[in-house]
């Protein structure tokens, strides 16, 4: 990949500061301040380290903070994200299936630190589930990529159509369809179909929403809510109705299941308001009563250099 172009996408520093609009922090525990300051320093050091490594390589590269990136990524041969899974997810929303991405976890969690402060606060750092590199192995992983010794895996993404119109953002982890107020009831129905033929009965729901995840996203919110881990390269989707209200609904077997790669889920929204959240809360699309939503894995995949344990 010598002579090619690389985009270095960076997590900003201000995510480590928690301040009110008047600038006065509500955090009084000095250990939390020290923890946040250390996280910021570790992240800055990781950025500096990655930039120094890139300066030594025969490759053109440009750094940009993720908050300053708003248009689709093009005219590069590789994207390197420095942050965590959130930075990689944000990059994925602006990428097609032609450019591979390498995630660098700039601030990994330390088990001993979490245990030490468990009675004071949550000292977890970045999970970096999809990040194949840290500062410890970044140069080696990058060299292997530049030499063509490792190839990216293609992860499935979720395509969503509202009233037959394709949304411009594909989900790498999951989508959540819910009322904008978390305390309000979400009313909707859905069925699984293949082409135009139904593969399941119509399911009518009153709940707190509907979550659909990719295989890569099955270890995130889906797992936390009682789902199961899927093989990371699976093209199937996993769905779960959140907190169904109807008597006996949870035991019906219809509230949780798979949408196979050749199938899609067709849902109809019956609440006055609704929102489709894609990979968290930052990317969302409003829906309203009567809207139809089609969900499938028929989206362009994303080329990702995965951690080695996925491939072993």
TrEMBL record:
Q: What Pfam families does the annotation carry? A: NAD_kinase (PF01513)
| Protein EC | 2.7.1.86
Q: Which residues form a coiled coil?
A: none
Q: Name one GO molecular function term.
A: ATP binding
Instruction: From the Swiss-Prot or TrEMBL record, state where the protein is found.
Output: Cytoplasm
Write out the entry's keywords from A to Z: ATP-binding, Cytoplasm, Kinase, NAD, NADP, Nucleotide-binding, Transferase
Q: Where would you say this protein principally sits, based on its record?
A: cytoplasm
Q: Which Gene3D superfamilies match?
A: Probable inorganic polyphosphate/atp-NAD kinase, domain 1, Probable inorganic polyphosphate/atp-NAD kinase, domain 2
The terms describing its cellular component in GO are: cytoplasm
Top EC class per UniProt? transferase
Q: Which GO terms describe its biological process?
A: NAD+ metabolic process; NADP+ biosynthetic process
Does Cytoplasm show up as a keyword for this record? yes
Under PANTHER family, the record lists:
NAD KINASE (PTHR20275), NADH KINASE (PTHR20275:SF28)
Q: How does it assemble?
A: Homodimer.
Please report the name of this protein according to its UniProt entry: NADH kinase
């Amino acid at each position: 990949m010598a002579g090619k172009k690389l985009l270095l996408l960076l997590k900003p520093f201000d995510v480590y500061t928690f301040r009110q609009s008047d600038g006065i922090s509500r955090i009084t525990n000095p250990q939390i301040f020290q923890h946040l300051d250390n996280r910021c320093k570790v992240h800055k050091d990781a950025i500096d380290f990655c930039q120094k490594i890139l300066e030594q390589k025969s490759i053109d590269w440009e750094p940009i903070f993720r908050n300053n990136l708003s248009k689709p990524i093009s005219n590069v041969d590789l994207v390197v994200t420095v942050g965590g899974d959130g930075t990689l997810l944000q990059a994925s929303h602006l990428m097609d299936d032609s450019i591979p991405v390498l995630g660098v976890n700039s601030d990994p969690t330390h088990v001993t630190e979490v245990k030490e402060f468990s009675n004071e606060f949550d000292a977890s750092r970045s999970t970096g589930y999809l990040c194949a590199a840290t500062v410890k192995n970044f140069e080696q992983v990058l060299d292997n990529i530049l030499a063509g010794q490792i190839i990216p895996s293609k992860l499935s993404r979720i395509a969503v159509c509202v009233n037959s119109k394709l949304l411009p953002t594909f989900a790498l982890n999951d989508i959540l369809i819910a009322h904008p107020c978390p305390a309000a009831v979400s009313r909707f129905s859905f069925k699984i179909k293949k082409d135009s033929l139904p593969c399941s009965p119509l399911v009518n729901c009153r709940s707190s929403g509907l979550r659909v995840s990719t295989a890569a996203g099955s270890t995130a919110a889906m797992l936390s809510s009682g789902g199961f881990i899927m093989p990371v390269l699976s093209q199937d989707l996993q769905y779960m109705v959140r907190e169904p209200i109807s008597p006996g609904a949870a035991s019906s077997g219809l509230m949780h299941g798979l949408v196979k790669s050749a199938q899609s889920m067709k849902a109809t929204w019956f609440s006055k308001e609704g929102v489709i959240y894609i990979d968290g809360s930052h990317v969302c699309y409003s829906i309203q009563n009567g809207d139809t939503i089609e969900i499938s894995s028929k989206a362009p995949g994303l080329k990702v250099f995965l951690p080695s344990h996925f491939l072993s």
